[in-house]
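note to self: the first set is below, dont mix up w the second
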Amino acid sequence: MLSLEEIMERLLVAMAIGMLLGIEREHRDKSAGLRTITLISMGSCMFMLVSMIIDAGNTYRIASNIVTGIGFIGAGVIFKSDKGINGITTAATIWATAAVGMAVGGGLYLAALGACALILIVLALFIRIEQWIERINKERVYTITRRYEPGILLKYETLMKSFHLKFELEKRIKLDDDIQCSWRVQGSKSNQEKLVEALLEDPAIRKFEV
């Protein structure tokens, strides 16, 4: 059986790892910040310790319940907004933090520290890779309302092609003498901005949303 000193040592290590991960989330002003991530790491560690002390032969049962419980917490930080679904990375961080806390509780210090380092690399470095990908391959939905004329769709699709953008017509609605069209457009951020400028300068467009 583990001594009190060993239990406290593992809890302190779990707290330190949770703090490292929590500081990164707090720095980015996420809903699950320093205190939440630290408590998740310590709680997962403690559950693992309890399972080892009470029933060393069936630690997998409590471990599996930790994963289930963490799933509910992770779901609580995911929300939908006008710009899409937010909080998925924070939810994944919560899930990964619980796994690290469980590893510490099981005495796998090196594995836990290595996982912590890799998680921090993913959180700190991969966001820059995502930003780079977004710059070269951004997707937007353009909605244009203007007076209907024959060949009007071809006119704007030719304009999009001139800026080397890929597009897909999503909908077109006839509104009396007007027509409203929406395209899903994909391409580099700079080319998208050029398209926006061209559309804003078009006097025939009555309403433009992006």
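second set (the one i keep forgetting abt)
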Amino acid sequence: MAQVRADNNFSGVYWIIEDGQEKVATANLAPGKKVYGERIVFLNGIEYRLWDPFRSKLAAAILNGLKFFPFKEGARVLYLGASTGTTVSHVSDIVGVKGIVFAVEFSPRVANEFIDRCVKFRKNIVAVVEDARRPENYVGVFGKVDVVYCDIAQPDQTEIAIKNCRMFLRKDGILMLVVKSRSIDVVKEPTKVFEEEEEKLRANNFEVLQKIELAPFDKDHALIVSKKLF
């Protein structure tokens, strides 16, 4: 029979224990609703959604040894690159009804799917259909946020993240930047790309806290966690 335990360090993260294996999960903020075909487990009257590390880079980072986890109940999050809502939905579970996730997606087609699949069932998500290169045009984003999470496949992804942080991330807030090395340089070694993106962050007054490569879940990807110092 399956069992559940709360993570010792990460608020809102749970581990479902089945057949001697532990699988990461979150408690479903929208009971009865799936977002990406994830498996649902009912334990002790609570509905848990298994968090697939092959579909979510944040889940992959947790399994690969993430040490800094800024998401918690009541947190304010700016999420760049919402796509159809896989990771956004789990962040929504974690921040809960007291938190808010401003989720930016550029493609109207993808955004419509995101809204139909996820946003309409979760009152703590605000969908923003806009180019992340133009944060000054966002409609619906207000105040400073505690976390900026950036997962966009663009050569200037780090610069885009920094621009958004300058506008919306509070001092000492956390930037979680997914670096897709092949989107930046298809020839250069991924480890070199990761180092160069780290240096860009440091040059813009961010303190790099951790870098985690995401293989085997996502080849040539890394998650860089940094703190805004200004």
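remember for set 2: The domain at 3-51 is CATH 3.30.200.20 (Phosphorylase Kinase; domain 1).
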